[in-house]
Amino acid sequence: ENHEDKIDYVFKVVVIGDSAVGKTQLLSRFTKNEFCLDSKSTIGVEFQTRTVTIKGKVVKAQIWDTAGQERYRAVTSAYYRGALGAMIVYDITKRPTFDHVARWVEELRAHADNSIVITLIGNKADLMDQRAVSTEDAVEFAEDQGLFFFETSALSGENVEKAFLRLLEEIYGVI
Ligand code: GDP
Ligand code: MG
Q: I need a surface site. Which of 34, 37, 68, 173 has the fewest CB within 10 A?
């Protein structure tokens, strides 16, 4: 069955952040409610979609995933083109992935539209006993930079739906 004709908006969202923080699994959780513990680096697929209803409008979220370019800091401006929202993901158990968030914000400011809505995501919140980034540090950084912030687990699904829907609602509010 084809619902394409009923779609009111298509929102492009880009997911960025260091390698292995869980970007692909967050997408997979949100778009298919699936998770894979042995996921290898992303191959092929450029984006995944999920259609949701926001304030009575049918919104197709087109969520773009980096395909290993994060290792070489080679995400091109084409990747950011037309993006209305972004998720910058770090791993709460790996301090360097949080320290690099500022660089990802700079990347966005350089390549994406000024009005892009940005959400900071501290992923792998299920691994509390290995935590290397406090919630307070992340909240402070997010407030400073004007970013929304959520701690999520792609594994358990905790906060994943909430974070994506909040981002899509915010985009709807600014378009
Ligand atoms: P990407 O390189 O940022 O796309 O990272 P992936 O989505 O490929 O995930 C990297 C690894 O972390 C994989 O082994 C995933 O199974 C694992 N992973 C992703 N999200 C979570 C999570 O929320 N909790 C745990 N414990 N592992 C995760
Ligand atoms: Mg990936």
A: 37
